[in-house]
Amino acid sequence: MLDGKQLTISEAHKLLKDKQVSSVELTKAYIERTEKLEPQIKAVVTLTADLALQQAQKADKMISAGNCTPLTGIPMMVKDNICTKDIKTTCSSKMLENFVPPYSATVIEKLEAQGMVMLAKTNMDEFAMGSSTEKSAFHLTHNPWGLNRVPGGSSGGSAAAVAAGEAVYTLGSDTGGSIRQPAGFCGVTGLKPTYGRVSRYGLAAFASSLDQIGSLTRNVTDAAHVLNAIAGFDDNDSTSSAIDVPDYTKCLTGDIKGLRIGIPQEYFTDELESDVAAAVKTSAAKLEAMGAIIDWDLSMPNTRYALDVYRIISSAEASANLACYDGVKYGFSYQDTDDMWEVIEKSRGMGFGSEVKMRIMLGTYLLSAGQYEKYYLKAQKVRTLICEDFAKAFAKYDLLITPTTPTVPFKIGEKSEDPAKMAFADILTVPVNLAGVPAISVPCGFVGGLPVGLQIIGKQFDEETVLKTAYAYEQATDWHQQRPNI
Amino acid sequence: MKLSSEQVAAIATLSRINLDKAETEKTRAYLSEMLDSFEKLEAVNTNGIPPTIQPSTLMDVLKEDAIKPSMSQEDVFNNAPKSDNGYFKVKVVLE
User: Fold this and answer.
1) On the CB side of A400, how many CA atoms lie within 13 Å of its CA?
2) A215 given a catalytic annotation
3) Cα separation values, A65 from A55, A69, A72, Å
4) B4 DSSP 8-state letter
């Protein structure tokens, strides 16, 4: 029954509810599989097997008492930038290598209330800055579809863990594509909700106007289940929204007749691999055959500025957010001196990896006197134009579809020393964060045995139409059922 | 825009980051490449366009000033490199 251990949330929930398996048994099976696969995949930073088994016992009691939700007792993992009380939360950085949060993120508290079973904290690019998980201070993560390939990033551990069947679902965070891009690279479903739909309290901040927590799952129904559990207003996050949270599984009807879908030309650049473009165009034709109305000629002219605007805004915000790491309150601390400034400068110099330091310095420069107007304020204004592109598009269309990434997963080491080339991996996902809209990546084909992702973008707080369409597409295809041979 | 090593060193000081020579050079190349790339934004007409600070439409979110349980001091200081009697301990600030 658990041989494959490639269950979806819905399948695992049914087994638990029908008492065909207990959460403890299920959890043991996933721990075993994780321990077997980790030497190859390395998705995990901290394995929390003992905690998971304790949580599974608690979940079994909830299930026996008839007090369970679809997520109760389901083995999952959490990206290591989401705070978990008493469990190390490292952001895959030497700076936080021994940091034990004194509190849990709101998403963790919400999931705990539903009988969460957390197997591990997952690997990521340091402080979520990167697109390949090669920037983890600890180790690389390998793509289950090709072990010499990157899993994408920054939520690369979370994506690889789901693809490898080490966890039923995982949490990630998405600042410029960090859920969708690895989901695309690993052939899983990655949902970045609307900015404000899910509380960011307890997420180690990278760029506060862009960051959002979301899920990596085996299919769209599972994404709806996780969003049901984590969405909603939080008193501890003043940017979280009080807009009602619907039951996101209710919209999964399979009916997309009459939906208006725009395909922005600017996302099909010359740099896009032709096989990736072809897979996405075939997907669009499929949606058309299912009754959606596709417009292939939408133009969003400011898209070409999105990557630079993103780099400016995210680096500026990061330089402010990461100022808290000073070797005084928590984190790595250099003490071999009597000079206060040397403590701070060497703690930061030795605690942060090179990518993080460069981005902090870029942000510091962009915010400095004389540069602020030229770069930061200008980028904020161009951000407005990018948001207006989306507003105009959504006045005409219900959804937009694009490829998630311009290429299939690249080889480990291929781009790691070239930040500009690396950032290119995010070129199709960053506009979504600038506009704060929701988007999902679902598997839509394979090129040379490597997965391709289809990005479906919706209006702010209209996750329902995004999920509905992704679900209808998934029902008509079997890409999401493919499994890597590991 | 090409930055000099001295400019990079000044930015490192502003950022309170200690850099060795190799890192300074790597950062100089990175910053110069980024600033070159940003030049293309100059061509965008943003006259009369307001800045977007964050993408939500929420404004002036306030909450009741109510006393709630907070983290324990012990838990918080567990992560401190050095603490003493409920304070973070730092090196001498004023001689």
Assistant:
1) 32
2) no
3) 15, 12, 12
4) P
- Residue numbers in A near B30 (CB within 8 A): 358, 362, 419
Tokens of A270: 């010359």
Residue count of chain A: 486
CA nearest A444: which of A223, A244, A285? A285
pLDDT tens-place string over residues A14-46:
999 999 999 999 999 999 999 999 999 999 999
Which residue is listed with tokens 């909830």? A62
Nearest CA in chain B to A209: B54
Q: Is A481 helix (H, G, I), strand (E, B) or coil?
A: helix
| pLDDT attached to residue A477 | 97
CB neighbour list of residue A459: distance below 8 Å, 6 or more residues apart:
A394, A398, A437, A465
Instruction: With CB atoms and an 8 Å threshold, state whether A384 touches B51.
Output: yes
Q: How far is it, in rounded angstroms, from Cα A406 to Cα A423? A: 11
Is the overall model pTM greater than 0.90, yes or no? yes
Contact A147, A40 (CB under 8 A): yes
Residue A423 pLDDT class (50, 70, 90 cuts): confident
> Active site residue: A79, A94, A121, A346, which one?
A79
Residue A2's pLDDT is: 64
Q: Are A251 and A465 in contact (CB under 8 A)?
A: yes
Could you confirm whether A154 is annotated as catalytic? yes
The CA distance from B22 to B28, in Å, is 10
Distance CA B22, CA B43 (A): 34
**Collapsing DSSP states into helix, strand and coil, what is residue A60?**
helix
pLDDT above 90: residue A359 = yes
Segment A326-338 shows an average pLDDT of 97
Predicted local distance difference test score (pLDDT) of residue A152: 97
Q: Which residues of A touch B11 (CB under 8 A)?
A: 361, 364-365, 368
Q: Is A461 left (phi over 0), alpha (psi -120 to 50) or beta?
A: left
**Cβ proximity of A347 and A325 under 8 Å:** yes
Residue B72: cis peptide before it, omega within 30 degrees of 0: no
Domain span at residue A171 reads: 1-486
Contact A240, A196 (CB under 8 A): yes
Longest dimension (CA), chain B: 57
- CA A407 – CA A410 distance, rounded (Å): 8
Q: Tell me the pLDDT tens digit for each residue of A61-80.
A: 999 999 999 999 999 999 99
Contacts of A102 in chain B (CB under 8 A): 71-72, 75-76, 78-79
**Is A383 within 8 Å of B52 when comparing Cβ atoms?**
yes
A79 included as an active-site residue: yes
Please give the single-letter amino acid code of residue A432: V
Number of domains in chain A: 1
The CATH number linked to A92 is 3.90.1300.10
Does any CB of chain A come closer than 8 Å to the CB of residue B21? no
DSSP single-letter state for residue B22: H
Rg (CA), chain A: 21
